[in-house]
Amino acid sequence: MHDQQLLRYSRHILLDEIGIEGQQRMLDAHALVIGAGGLGSPAAMYLAASGIGRITLVDDDTVDLTNLQRQVMHTTARVGQPKVESGREALLQINPDIAVVALRERVGPARLAELVASATVVLDCSDNFATRHAVNRACVAAGVPLVAGAVIRFDGQLSVYDMRDPASPCYACLFPPDSRFEDVACSTMGVFAPLVGVVGAVQAAEALKLVVGIAPSLAGRLQMLDGRAMEWSEVRVARNPACPVCAGRAAPCSDR
After folding, report:
1. In the chain, beta strands by DSSP E
2. Catalytic residues
3. Are 135 and 174 in contact (CB under 8 A)?
4. Phi and psi angles of residue 90, each rounded to the nearest 5 degrees, phi first
5. What is the pLDDT of residues 91-123, one digit of tens each?
6. How far apart are alpha carbons 159 and 139 in whole angstroms?
7. What pLDDT is recorded for position 179?
């Protein structure tokens, strides 16, 4: 790191859990962020500020006036622009030393596999089950850790699915792909704006911990936030040995 980077990241470097080596891991890392909306905005902005060296934003949507209530990466002046281009501009304003790749596309399985294979960590900030399952399958296949979050109305949830750990469940262990889950959109159900900031920021925190190697992560723990009472609750989740997505992975160690 050069002198300007040492100064920029000095508050991280002061932390025993991070130090210069941990900060260098961030600078060398590649974070793939699926979705540049409510969750993707705070998550990507904290990743950029923290010094993740390369961030790839994936989203096929454009900035709409209704987004601005919660999608803090975008501005009124950028309404009508592709979200990934707006996001790229915002992230480079925060930290011009990083690389930001803007992909305006709806990625299919083959493209997802390609993108995930080059990532250090993946953040699922999408808003539908089909995308979440597709991202999970790609992460399982590539052995890349996944941080997934979701928010609707006053309710949020998130967890880590660390495919490097044989004991960690995948997203499909919790939410089987053949189960009937109704996709609910904030356009019809509403969403409390600060809640996406809370969950997105925690997604960034978990991603940074995975990059640096700070334990424990949220792997095997589903955290849920009631934004009305402002209370967190947690459910411990074990890996499903019959999971149709991750059953072929190495089995957990018997002493865990």
Report:
1. 30-34, 54-58, 99-103, 121-124, 146-152, 155-161, 221-226, 231-236
2. 186
3. no
4. -65, -45
5. 999 999 999 999 999 999 999 999 999 999 999
6. 14
7. 75
